[in-house]
From TrEMBL, chains A, B:
Listed InterPro entries: Creatin/AminoP/Spt16_N, Creatinase/aminopeptidase-like, Creatinase_N, Pept_M24, Peptidase_M24B
Domain of life (superkingdom): Bacteria
Annotated Peptidase M24 domain residues: 153-355
Native source organism of the sequence: Actinacidiphila oryziradicis
Protein name: M24 family metallopeptidase
Pfam families: Creatinase_N (PF01321), Peptidase_M24 (PF00557)
Limits of the Creatinase N-terminal domain: 8-145
Length: 375, 375
């Protein structure tokens, strides 16, 4: 695995040296993890200018929780005081090495979308000879297209989420609260080998069903409710998402069936639109158009899906304002929903990997049935 | 409650107008919550320059999860596009209102320790006529001393954590994994009315016992282990922490008893040092000195305690480098630990409220016994 991370760092190094940066300071945790395989709390990665990249830790690596090992070709630098800022220490290190080897006025690229103004200023004052430039979303760009190992981790994450959800469906649901169901799902995720939930599990019943990012309450599941569950597993850092809506009791009401069929059709349209070269906004439009056909176009919210990987909701976004096109091997969610105030609604979501049609089209990772189950 | 938040905003307004700021943009979530009673994801608070303060939301407040209601004397402003940045929209609003009413070149104070460089730049370019200044930790300062309602919430949070821990102690522990015990504790916190865990629950057994912030693994509890549990409840946004160490089996080894007595004595020294007017570093020193007497002075790590409230680990810090003194009604943790590599260790922590001796001295909120229990 160590070579994988070294290759990623080399790609970033090449990109930055073209842009005139002599060294790069990566501070966003998911980016540090992508480039090293580990992300100890608060640590930052310095790429160049020395021959060995450096991971600057707050405390001794032996005391860090064991989530991924630091590659052997990366120096471990421990802050003299754990009160200090690893980013400042890394900039000081870069300045010292550049003063020894590099041209005067060399440039250190930093993640301005992650560093706070206060930290950026502290970096500037510890190393006044260093020019600071903006790395922007360069690492996020590299993270877009996933390699085989990343997709394998996502497949396992999806399998775990499907298992947890499947077990829940076999249990008695009426009378249990949203909060208990959410906690039980999270326990099952861990039972099946997840590092933990990919994000806080959403469970919404009755009037809460279908709402996006509904925070579970003490409302109990009742006969006749719609029940929406949205969960995901995190496996080796990789996060998936699956959302399903069920009906409680034997005979769904007509409005429930109609709404379900609508959201199902919208979600299918989005899934079927996924292909390399397709504009992200066109996938969103495919989903949204179906909802709009019955006047629910606004219900879809800001986006109908987004990229997943080391983060939930990473690039690309599937939204009306999204720029850019899909590539092969980009995992995304397609998860439209409609929520009717005071009545509830339906949300259906999957994690899929974009594939060319020659490879069979989009690969569905979350395979729990999307039939309207009556539980 | 609404008056409480209005009074807090008035205090901040006064402080800022003295410092020359015509308006204040608060973006750090715990600070927004402190000043309004709610903190919808991504929302920011604009204080002044208009007669009504404004909470800028990403989406309609009716779609927000119901955690605290927005006060009626605060305007709800919804972003036209949920893709936008509420901080930028708030700055635009401030600029428009200042252009209409205020002097030219008026100053907007922002939280430079929270805003990223990229967001700060976006604020600067949307409102070029506005000077940006640094609010610094002004809201964090206001948050230090807690009022009666805040302390009442912390008392309930502590009671919930004690209950969850007490129930765990009555169950069979041998053979269960750290991860399962942590999940079970979190479920029990919610059972007893917590919003959720105050932080990810730490459970460490055998060689993992006593380690700070140990991330639970699949290691199972064994006969003869030390078992360290650190958990907290979040109740109405307020977070407490309690840490205890137990021995599994009937007869602890001598080294386990010695280590326990040492950490217990250190923790007691820290608790007893808590009083209004005492320097934070002296509380740390009281704890650390006991550990140092047996050569474990370094084991205490960066800090032996810190403030709690809307966040775990807020100001003040109890560490060798800490500046400042304690005040009455400041809740803090005292939680030293010693971890011996490959053997394990002991950690004992409580949440207490600093009180003058005339009021009976520090108020212990987490009352689970600190005897060495053999389970």
């Amino acid at each position: 695995m160590s070579e994988v991370h070294a290759a990623r760092r080399d790609r970033l190094r090449d990109r930055c040296s073209v842009a005139g940066a002599a060294a790069v300071l990566v501070s966003r945790p998911a980016n540090v993890r992508y480039l090293t395989g580990c992300a100890p709390a608060g640590s930052v990665l310095l790429i160049g200018p020395g021959p060995l990249d450096a991971l600057v830790h707050r405390r001794s690596p032996s005391e860090e929780p064991a989530e991924g090992r630091q590659p052997e070709d990366v120096r471990a630098v421990v802050l003299p005081s754990p009160d200090g800022d690893p980013a400042v220490a890394a900039a000081e290190l870069a300045a010292a090495e550049l003063a020894a080897t590099g041209p005067a006025g060399a440039c250190l690229a930093v993640e301005e979308h992650h560093l706070t103004v206060a930290r950026h200023r502290a970096i500037g004052s510890i190393a006044p000879g260093l020019r600071l430039s903006d790395l922007g979303g360069a690492v996020e760009q590299l993270r877009l297209v996933k390699d085989g190992q990343e997709i394998a981790a996502l497949r396992i994450a999806a399998e775990i989420a499907d298992q947890a959800l499947g077990e829940l469906l076999e249990s008695i649901l009426v009378g249990r609260t949203e909060r208990h169901l959410a906690l039980e799902l999270e326990r099952r995720l861990v039972d099946h080998g997840a590092d933990g939930p990919a994000f806080p599990t959403h469970v919404g019943t009755g009037p809460h069903s279908g709402a996006a990012r509904h925070v579970p309450t003490d409302r109990r599941v009742e006969e006749g409710d719609l029940l929406t569950v949205s969960l995901g597993a995190c496996y080796r850092g990789y996060r998936c998402e699956v959302a399903r809506t069920f009906v409680i009791g034997t005979s769904p009401a007509d409005w429930q069936i109609e709404l379900y069929d609508l959201v199902f059709a919208a979600q299918r349209a989005g899934r079927e639109a996924l292909a390399p070269g397709v504009a992200c906004r066109d996938v969103d439009l495919a989903t949204r158009r179906v909802l709009a056909s019955t006047g629910h176009g606004d219900a879809a919210g800001e986006a109908t899906g987004y990229g997943v990987g080391l983060e939930i909701g990473e690039d690309p976004r599937l939204s009306p304002a999204a720029m850019g096109k899909l590539d092969a091997c980009v995992p995304v969610t397609v998860e439209p929903g409609v929520h009717l105030p005071d009545r509830g609604g339906v949300r259906i979501g999957d994690t899929l990997v974009v594939r060319p049609s020659a490879d069979g089209g989009p690969e569905l990772l979350t395979i729990t049935t999307k039939e309207l189950l009556a539980l």
